[in-house]
Amino acid sequence: MARRQLALMVLVQILALSVWFSASAVLTALRCEWGLDRQGGIWLTAAVQIGFAVGVVVSAALTWPTGSSRNGCWPPPRCWGRPAPR
Q1: DSSP helix/strand/coil, 72
Q2: What tens-digit pLDDT sequence spans the chain (86 residues)?
C-alpha cells in the first residue's frame, strides 16, 4: 500500500511540474504569437512560478492538519512548530 501511494505521489508531482515546464518550453512561440518582448517573456515565466508558489501556500493553508478551530490553532502561522493533534 505504501509503495502504491508513493508511486501515485510521484506521478502527480511529475504531472504538476509538466505544466510548469511546458510553459517555459513554449515561451518562444508565445512571445512571437502574443508580441511579447524579452522582458515580457521574463514576466510571464515569473508569473507562472509565482502562481505555483502561491497555489502551494494556499493549498497548505486550507489543508493544514492542525487548522481546526477546536484546538485554537488558526491561522496556520500560529500552528507552525506545534505537533499535530492525535
Answers
A1: coil
A2: 788 888 888 888 888 777 777 777 888 898 899 999 999 999 988 888 898 888 878 877 776 555 454 555 555 555 666 665 55
